[in-house]
Amino acid sequence: MHDPQTLNERFGIAGKLSFREAAAGIVVAEIDNAQAVASICLQGGHVMSWRPKSQAEPVVWLSPLAKLAPSKSIRGGVPVCWPWFGPHAKESGYPGHGFARTVPWNVTATGSAESGATRIVLELEPNEQTRAMWPHESRCVIEILVGETLKISLVTDNLGEDAFVIGEALHTYFRIGDIADVRVLGLDGCAFVDKVDDGKRKTQEGAVTFDGETDRVYLDTTAECTIEDPRLKRRIRIAKDGSASTVIWTPWAEKADKMGDFGPDGWRAMVCVESANALDDVVKVPAGERHTLAVEYRAETL
Ligand code: TA6
Hints:
Number of helices: 3
Bound molecules: 6-O-phosphono-beta-D-tagatofuranose
Distance between the termini: 43 Å
Number of domains: 1
Radius of gyration: 18 Å
């Protein structure tokens, strides 16, 4: 169901949560409570933006050129990569990062938490195309809690008779002052695959800093990461559970220009710190079992 009027009648929360058609065939949930504002695109179960009211700048970055169109991925926000991360292992024609972010998701619940945060739950709606790519009986649900922190849980249920393996990520674009000035802490000593250096395996020394295109999959790490941003005078804490990989990505200038949807110098204002299960860390979900990848984001003034 994607009719804003019906959605508002069934799931709207007066003064806090409403639904609108942001573009043809694209419905967005707008949340504005005492603690934060956020926009969530039903297609892809995709948090597009989140700004705690204690922050002048959004914490989750959305490209000024982000396109909202059926079956199109959105540049920025929190893309849901599922049920694989990166290119499909065998089928080069399958969409990169899985299909979850470009198919409709249905609202199944909304509510207000005691904390004052606003909750919305969405379920991926399989179709003929997704079943052809992913012939497993499964359910994928995302629960989003919008408040002073942003909590997201990506839940996979195996409803079938056989185990299956998933790769996944909450591929979050964080708003920063300038990519050349930030440091990402929490990965010191972690092994990583360097995707801009022929996939070589290396070990992180100290903080992650940026002076060019950076695309790394850190493996076997459950660590909380922190983005230190002297220009916006804040740190962003990225806590996670059920995730063994952390992906760090900036396209830098040339790749951003090629991708064409970052906007003028948009690449300078974002960094991706993605809580994932990728490469060696893909997850086997036994028949009848549940796997949850969860994150909590918090911004603190320096
Ligand atoms: O997570 C990093 C990455 O895999 C990069 O290699 C780059 O492809 C990025 O994701 C964006 O991918 P997208 O399909 O959203 O353009």
